[in-house]
Amino acid sequence: MRKSILLPVLILASSVFSIPGQAAEATPQRGGTLNFLAEPEPPVLTSLVSTSGAVMKVNAKVIEGLLTYDFNMQPIPQLATSWAVSPDGKQYTFHLRKGVKWHDGQDFTSADVAFSILTVKQYNSRAQGTFANVTEVKTPDPYTAILELSKPAPYLLSAFSANEAPMVPKHLYEGTDIMTNPHNTAPIGTGPFIFKEWVRGSHILYVRNPNYWDKPKPYVDQLVVKIIPDAATRTIALETGALDLGSDSPVPLSEIDRIKKNSKLGIETRGYGYSPTQTRIEFNLDNPYLKNLKVRQAIAHSINIDVLKNVVWYGYAVKSPTPITPELAAFHDNTPSPYAFDIAKANALLDEAGFPRQANGIRFKLVHDYMPYGDSFKRVAEYIKSSLAKVGIEVTIRSQDFATFIKRVYTDRDFDFDNGSISNLFDPAVGVQRLYWSKTYKPGVPFGNGSHYSNPEVDRLLEQAAIETDPAKRVEMYQQFQRIIATDIPDLNLLQINRQTIYNKRVHNFLTDIQGVNGSLADVWLEQ
After folding, report:
1. Residue 157 sits in the same domain as residue 303
2. Residue pair 245/58 in contact by the 8 Å Cβ criterion
3. Range of the domain at 297
4. Predicted confidence (pLDDT) per residue in 424-445, tens digit
5. Are residues 433 and 303 in the same domain?
6. Which residues are CB-neighbours of 50 under 8 A, at least 6 positions away?
């Protein structure tokens, strides 16, 4: 398992690299259209302003980062050809690739890098923490960008992918309202594919960039990202060849065994290491019932994680009752959960909290929203409704499209509790801190501290761990943090999902780095 990357010495990369684990393939064939699934439909098409998982599927096809990463999380050049980190970890120098053009023909330069880093830091919920210590980006010449940090950030070299630090054109964003800039939905980048159209509810069309810097890539002529909300329809589309590629377990998990028997289809489980995904129940701590710790404890005792794992997720998950998933083994807390399934204990806690059953057997009512991402979270919601009925909590399940869900939870805060998934990413400072740090509570910014949780000791531990360069001390800080969360339970962590990518076997080379299909797909080719 990966450990945090410490940066005490100079690091230099060559533009020549290899990717371990990739078997030699036949010579790529040019041409064809790759039909690729995005489910749910992304709210925008760039990660500059959104950390939605759906956005991550499309962003890197058009927009690039300074680096990408191999399967061992070692950096690979993309828009940067080499880099150096100062011995104190407070200065990052990137030397940029020359001759790169934006899709509108303008030159890519260090001014774009400086603008992009400082903008994503301001407008992206993850990047607010990731780049918190970056105070300035110097541009001594068009092909050199120097990040100055106020404090070390031992994870930072892992954060320059297209999805975490997207390079966007300064000349099209500067002086505009960043959140409503039209290029958020019609992006212009430096990547292998050029955006052509977005027919909402149907598809997003990208075409081959004939002037891509990494010739002769890309190999396919078109990339059609299809929007197919219905799980059964997605399954049929994969089986009939209408879809070539779908990630994040695009079919009902009950269908996986049948898909495995289809000679035309393959299943791949790699390509998710950059962003291991955690499922959880998120409580709105401003709710008059859920702000009571005993109520949250009672709900925790009412949930049988074994049922969720084996029945709802068909075994394609790992128990993960802590904020940091088992995938991040260096930091994961193996202490058993204090909330074993215990209906009697849950009922006793609700009595102690002062919410007795009424004559109809109901203590109080809550509305539950689920993330509309596949069909599994709806199944989780149905299980939660059934489980909480046993302890006298009447749950009404509310469904909506993805954009409405995000607005309800993170902007309007018109929710009681929800269930969904969140990415832990490659380091707790990036993927976990945002969920519990009081400073990331900001209505309107999605996938941050939606619970409105605030604990000064948690803030202190997270802030210290984010700059600590001693690995052992970092681990201890994150262990302490997890123990506090187990006591406070601002959310209830459940499972780490084991995700599947389903592909037509005529599709080659979609898996070339740790980001899997969330990467650029520049290497993909189709057997004609």
Report:
1. no
2. no
3. 277-497
4. 999 999 999 999 999 888 888 7
5. yes
6. 42, 43, 44, 124, 446
